[in-house]
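Action item from last week, closing it out:
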Amino acid sequence: MHASVLSAVQLAVTAGLVGWMLTGFTHLPGRWLRWRMFCRARFTIITLDGTRNGRTEPVNPYRYLSPGSFLLSPERLQAIITHLTRPGGYDRIDGRGRVLCAQGEQPIEVIDSVVR
């Protein structure tokens, strides 16, 4: 192939890929991050306070995720809270935050160590 034909093919393929990627990241009504990796993921952004022996201190649930992991679903958050409230741990954990998912943003609460 001539260099100009190869260059034209590369340009067309690149433009097609860029167009495909742009449409993959556009918003659908009522949705955010349409890309397949994000459409099933749920992110939890939350602030927690743990009570132990009558004293309250901040709790970082992200510290208990696997290295390199940043997705914290409500189910995973409940598992972490259950682990932290075992005997010898916190008496209770409370907090408020937001869950981000394909359906949008929703409030989340932790009351008396239960995710609601």
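Closing note: The radius of gyration is 22 Å.
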